[in-house]
Amino acid sequence: MKIKNIIKESVDFINLQLKKKNKINSKKNFFILGPKSNLDSLIIVNLFLEIENKIKKNLKKKINLMEFDFFDKKINSNYRIQDLEKDINKKLKTKK
Questions:
Q1: What is the extent of the structural domain holding 71?
Q2: For residue 34, is pLDDT > 90?
Q3: How far apart are the first and last CA of the chain?
Q4: pLDDT digits (tens, 9 = 90+) for 58-81
Q5: In whole angstroms, how far apart are CA 40 and each of 14, 16, 94?
Q6: What is the DSSP string of the chain?
Q7: How many domains does the chain have?
Q8: Distance between CA 91 and CA 96 in Å, rounded?
């Protein structure tokens, strides 16, 4: 399963729990972190945890998206779904 699909499934799952105005868009240009993001921290944490769980289940790999070095560098930048996909792929390649 591709990371793109894992992110999409995770977004869909999290959206089931959200009000319409808080829904996450799984399009690659949707901002998830930074000044242009409308998501609150709890939604972001839940999304990242869901992505981690799906990666563990489907790819049999364990990653932590909430690690200080990963999360801290992204929090103040305009960080999109496409950036998340790229960073997860990069992180998984270094986990071999």
A1: 3-94
A2: no
A3: 17
A4: 999 999 988 756 666 666 788 999
A5: 13, 16, 29
A6: --HHHHHHHHHHHHHTTS-GGGPPP-STT-EEESTT----HHHHHHHHHHHHHHHHHHH-----TT-HHHHHHHTTS-EEHHHHHHHHHHHHHHT-
A7: 1
A8: 9
